[in-house]
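Let's do one together. I've listed all components of the complex below, 534 residues spread over two lines.
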Amino acid sequence: MQLTLVQGLLLFIVGTICQFDQQTEAFYWFRPMVAAFFTGIILGNVELGVTCGAVTELAYLGMTNVGGTVPPDPLFAGIMTVVLAYTTGQSAETALGLSYPFALLAQGIGILFKTVYSFVPHKLDKYAAEADVRHFNSLVWGVTIFEAVFCGFIIFLCSYALQAPIQAFVNSFPTWVTHGLEVAGGILPAVGLAMLLLTTLKPETYPYLFIGFVMATFLKMPNVLPVAIIGASLAAIDYMYQKRFDEQKAEAIDDGGDSDGI
Amino acid sequence: MASNPTNKKGEPLQKLSKSDITRLGINSLTEQIAFSFERMQAPGWTMNMIPGFKKIYGDSKEDLKEFMTYNMEFMNTEPHMATLLQGMVLAMEEKGADRKLIQGVRNGLFGPMAGIGDSIFWFTVLPITAGIACSLAKSGSILGPLVFIGIYLVVGFSRIWFAHLGYSLGSKAVEKVGTATRYLTGAAGILGTTVIGALIPSYVSIAFQKKLVFGVGSTTVQSVFDQLLPNVLPLAVVFLIYWLFKKKHVNTIAVIGCVILFGLLMSLLNWM
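Okay, and this is what the predicted structure of the assembly comes out as:
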């Protein structure tokens, strides 16, 4: 299927809005789940957008900008997975594999902006020293909007302008390649989950990982909400015991102090 | 004659009202704009607080200069925690606290608070929300993205609550925040890990082809793994990648590249 110019321009607008949201992290519209949904609406195939969004969201779950780092871009991945599934007719998993170069391209653009924008604070220091709020604010908004519009334009280029060569390229793949990308697409959520575990997994949290795993493997559940409730209950139990333990320890230290005084 | 109150440097004029704090919470939705590697969140952080500060100090240019300058120092924390800190900073400015002290609180807290904010919002709220939304969305139901958008509207506007919390804690918060951080990070870690455990079998799919058997027998390779423990392969893959990150410090891009190559190889061999 081909994208029309109107669809390309609408993707430019959605891309710009979602990119602005990615810079502020206000409403998480840059996450693949939302960006792919919007893309599906624009392309007139909401179901495709939603299913691609689910597959991509999971693969990019661990790709967070925690600590000021720039990960492979979840927004570009979300939009391009839908666009590629739509134009090449491949499955969501295969399209996820195909969208990866675009996520890397956007990661590069993100790093470039955040490096180049290091000149901005120096200008802002000057305005701060003059208490010039008007210029301060317009520079802050200006650079942010510029980055959003720039990324929206790149999304327009990747989706609309490049669709014919990408389509021809993908259609030249033998079946084992597209199926291989599908296999990889099924495994990629493991990367996202492993990255999350880097922060949450500690010797004392291992048991909880297995509780969640066994529940989801052996119980029929419509979604992970029951597991979240069990997890919250376990966290509450741990919190109460931890608090009681700390209080007792504090008392024990007080007692110890008295007996030492003899 | 003068419509705006004037004052000499260093004297707070007016108290902030409840709606001023609410406005701070809404302003702070843009806390992270104009992000750069050099000062990270400092520009947005400073900009969000200016309206509140101007209410407290009126037209005093001297105070505004000092305020903007010390706030333009390096800042990087989780955005919701930034809102809480902004509330604390304005509460201290309103009391006319020494700016060196405020600066100390600001610089001392943003790091530890980033830890707690990340563990709540990135490592607990996101996996749970994504887990629920994806389970609805996998079959193509638009409820998936709608639930996701709905939850994150609440999460986004919870900044209003964080602004009020930070303002009411004010400068007393320093010790309190320290203890609360420890307990809350622990609790969020347990909840997050439990959910991630459940996401592994739900979303990582890796299985050998049904026709792949041992030698000439009829036992398929996959059935051996299934009898051992269903979903043992997804679990093993997650641990393998975790180990590559943790012990071998392999970077993300290389790991994803390997996964794609592995998929292609398995497909070429007709194993998966």
